[in-house]
Amino acid sequence: MRVLITNDDGIDSAGLTVLAHVAADAGHDVVVAAPNAEYSGFSAGLRGEHEDGVLTVSAGRPPGLRAGIESMAVHASPALIAYAAGAGDLGPRPDMLLSGINLGPNVGPAIMHSATVGAAISAAAQDIPSMATSITARSPQHWETAAAVLERAVAWLTSHQQDHRVLNVNVPDIPLGELKGLRTAHPARFTAVSDERQVQVRRLLFEPFASEKVTFEPDSDAGLLAAGWATVSLVAAHVHDGESATMPSLNFDEGAQS
Predict the structure, then answer these.
(1) pLDDT at 183 over 50
(2) pTM of this prediction?
């Protein structure tokens, strides 16, 4: 299976190496195609540098990547990289896309702003099974914990039909021996208990674990992460949730239309 690895932290991120090695160790044909610059918070935005209608690609390798794994720096946002890969512009169309490992968690409302998740959603929109992966630290110390969790997640992804859904995995940056396990979790709804709403919004989106004034639901992705669990959620892309409410409707008769 051909697996494309991308991220939003850029081609120099060590998280790419860990994720690529997990996929390679599972027996997959791996190629790294990551942005030449950081695109954190870019969601599924499309931006890139083109030359004669072709995305600009330059040399680039994340630190420690095995010599046998192909790697390139793409001058584009993660979502655009995913679309380009799906169109066959970065080599053969991938059978699976893995995004990350992001430096910092993607939980709760941060999910919809994350370019790590945006790349995975853009792949899923093209019927490419995809997964977004994150670790809770900006400077992780326990990559082995992430690798152990993602080995299980990649195996699950390859054996389950997703139907345009994205697997969103978050791992705490703690020693493997302290990890409680992997749990399914719903995205957290954060509750700020102060009047500093704008300050709280910034903390919730960019540093959700830094604020003591934020309450995490115990069974949510943020709450379980804080308690020492890795979490996994299924995120739906471009899906009409028509059964959850009665939608407005309007009919015009032929006379009104004329």
Answers:
(1) yes
(2) 0.89
